[in-house]
What we know:
Blueprint: H1 2-21, H2 26-48, H3 51-80, H4 84-106, H5 109-122, H6 127-136, H7 160-173, H8 183-192
Helix pairs in contact: 2-3, 2-4, 2-5, 2-6, 3-4, 3-5
Amino acid sequence: MARMVSGVMMAFVVGSMASAESCVQPFEQTAFNVIGMKSALMVGALSCGQSPQYDAFMKQFQPYLLAEQHVLDTYFRHADGMYGQTQEDNYVTQLANNQSAASLTLGQTYCGDNAQIFTEVLALNTPDDLNQYATAHTPAQPISLLPCAPSETIASQPDPAEAAKAEKELVVAQPLPPPLKPAGPVVKQARATKPAPKKPAHKPAPVLTTQSV
């Protein structure tokens, strides 16, 4: 049994190290910040009886939180391949365990601090506001997140609305070809035109005979 537990712990450590070797893009770092904040609020809600505040937070930002969770899913699949889901589950578990340990360290002040965070988060209006707040209050991560070098950074996708607008402006800016002349009048004109009269062919001179003389 002890050997099995040791093997599981070693697999987790190796998996975490493998994930840490994959650099994170800026949008992936944002996802880690936001999901880390979500996990911290969940631990606080369970520890301090603040479930109504957590439910309000989830209701307010649910579509955006799901999108950021999808970013994490994609990151772990890219970093760990077929073990991506297992490593992501390990990450979420370790993240919650670390935050639970931090709550025990803070003691009596923890619930009051968490209630204040709920108040501040629920006052935010947009996903960008939540991004900025999560970046400024980033929870400790159980894995190392190394930013990608500039040459490895994925180019951001153009906004579809802006791309459509630019394409429309390009089409408008191009000169239109001259309109084609209809074929009907040209045909009528061709039919109405009479061919020029042909000149009579040159007749050969008459041959004189003795009878005509």
